[in-house]
User: Fold this.
Amino acid sequence: MTSQNQLFETLNPPQRLLMGPGPINAYPRVHQAISQSLIGQYDPVMTGYMNQVQALYRGVFETQNQQTMLIDGTARAGIEAVLVSVLKPGDKVLVPVIGRFGHLLCEIAQRVGAEVRTIDIPWGEVCPPEKVEAEVKAFQPKLLATVQGDTSTTMNQPLEALGEICHRHGVLFYCDATASIAGNELKADAWHLDAVSAGLQKCLGGPSGSAPVTLSDRCAALINQRKHVEAGIRAAHHIQGAEAMIQSNYFDLAMVMDYWGPERLNHHTEATSMLYAARECARIYLEEGAEQVIARHRQAGGAMAAGLQAMGLSLFGDQQHRMNNVVGVSIPGEVDGDTVRLELLNRFGIEIGTSFGPLHGKIWRIGTMGYNARQECVLTTLAALEAMLLKHKARIEPGVAVTAAMEYFG
Ligand SMILES: Cc1ncc(COP(=O)(O)O)c(C=O)c1O
Assistant:
């Protein structure tokens, strides 16, 4: 029970080292950005920031797409906005399911009333392009919906070949890059992606609550065929789309595009503090340089994997296709995974991730993302985990994990 006194205590969350699959500790500069003054949504300074955010995220997504903006909400809001705006009832969508978030795409598409076909891949593997091409030919979907990095399994789905297939067959290509963007290569234009959505709370190093999205011109044109300007703000020059209205108001990307467009046609009230955060995340990423940031994630993830293996633990899934930023590691049979995680949190203030569905109780997921893709975070986590495993009498090789990770860093 919360006591009356607790209600009025000053907010004072504990300092944690967040080494799970996200959220992670935000870059200190992002915290500073969030605490800046609020301004009105039509203040020219604010609309200027909105334009800057669009330009910065074109850099992050590696795209020239005019329609690049933020959806106010967590990463799931970005996914839902794309799917509800692109898909109409009866439209065909093909989803390679490599983990939990593939199932999520199916569920959202089903809610829209789309006809969903899946390619079911065992957890720990990625979908071969041949399977996608065969299903594209057989099913002739309007949209191929994929997850790049599925945190539930730690796998990173290669997208370039899928983009080629979609391009050749005239299929729209969408990807949820929430967990992979900024830690793994993603080239929206070069890989023929028509829509990409993301979140801040993984390798971009921010809090959750803003979902950057980008839409190709053809995808934006298709969505605009369903444009219906809200009655209370409609003017004579507004042309309504010829097709059925998008079923969600909040996630109506035709409306959101108008809000971010030159007319600034009012929709929601842009979440100012989250926009500041998103702007800072992109600025940090592009300042350090995409290649350098991705290499930093590759190195930190590789060092974590090397340390865990040196302890004698086995890694989960096809290591050729592991995301740079999350490692899945089998929980030794001698210990209870949740007990170890909780003690790690209580004694060291370090959080690592549990897992879902068929992997629950079998693997922990350890992330090295954004601000935490650093040597000190990796070494501290390995040292603490080793101590907890020894305390719980796991049969591991003591005293070698940190050294192996240090050697990996060189
Ligand atoms: C691949 C992927 N997609 C979507 C999400 C959902 O993000 P959010 O919780 O910000 O809505 C997550 C979160 O872990 C994720 O890893």
In short: Residues 290-407 form a domain with the Aspartate Aminotransferase, domain 1 fold (CATH 3.90.1150.10). The pocket of pyridoxal-5'-phosphate is lined by residues 22, 74-76, 101, 147, 150-151, 176, 178-179, 199, 208 (CB under 6 Å). The chain has a mean pLDDT of 97. The two ends are 50 Å apart (CA to CA).
